[in-house]
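Lecture 7 notes: from sequence to structure.

We start with a single chain of 339 residues. Read the sequence below before looking at the structure.
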Amino acid sequence: MGKFRDSVDGSALRFAVGFPVVLAAAFVFCAFLLRPDLPEPMAIGWTADGGSAFAPFGAYAGGGALIIVAAGWLVLSQAVPPSRPAVMRRIMMGTGLFLSLFVTSVLAAGLVGQTGLADARESHVDLTVLALGSGAAVSLGVIMGFVFKADRQWSPEDDRALELALARELDPELAGDTIRLWVHARSSVFVMIAVATLFPAALITVALPWLGALVAILAVVAAAFLCARVKADRRGLRVFVAGVLPVMDVPAAAISAASAADVRAADYGGWGYRNHSGTAAMLVSSGPAVVVRKTDGHSVAVSGGSPDKAARLAEVLTRVAARAHRGGAASPAGGAPES
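Now the structure, written as tokens:
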């Protein structure tokens, strides 16, 4: 996701996607307002004598909307990549706006030219609407080409990146006081969950599709609760089940000691998140873990993934706790940013 965000201009992308869609929706809405006064079928091609090709109203309105969207996306998307020259991006943005409005003007001219007629063969393109719409399209396209800021803009993400860079420059030890890791159950556990639930769910789906889908969803949720994202920095320890659901937040000042240990999940109530009698645990399996003793007498146990990672996590927590007790805890802005 980060690479994608760096490869596109967010504001230009939103305009390139949204403007043609809004313009097409406005055209369809106006077409339905004129629907009672339009012939059926409608002309979609004209000669000097009048309409020469015909289509139903739905095809005219729906097809016209698709043409507007396709033409807009095709050209406006060329202005989205910031790696392209600024002049080219300005030209493509202005041209895309002009083309979208011009196509809409042509379709609207054909629509107005058939209003009030019983037979589309007697219709002609309304030149007034076509001239006014084309003129507006040209002028707005030129204006867009001049006002579009094709150069890279400073964003809130840049502010946060600068703040973090300054903090690391002023405090070289900051990077060493930060660790992030993912922990998950053994692959055999996920295979067991799949065999025990997904295969039966496939059979149940034949008779009761909703029940089979429910069993499959429960299997996915169970597997997700055997994965966790662990973050430790100068603010303390945080654990997120499935990477998104926060279940533990232990401030650095509340940590008394942290040590790596080889634990049995059964001693803490089993796999997954457990909180009983003042002891909280997020264990995805038995084995390497970090046991944190808090200043209030309670304790926390978190899976470490491997002995080396568990030792590293315990070392970081011990160091940040000692710093916090000395009164040197960093503010949230000085720690590592949320990912």
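Residues 328-339 have pLDDT under 50 and may be disordered. Keep this in mind for problem set 3.
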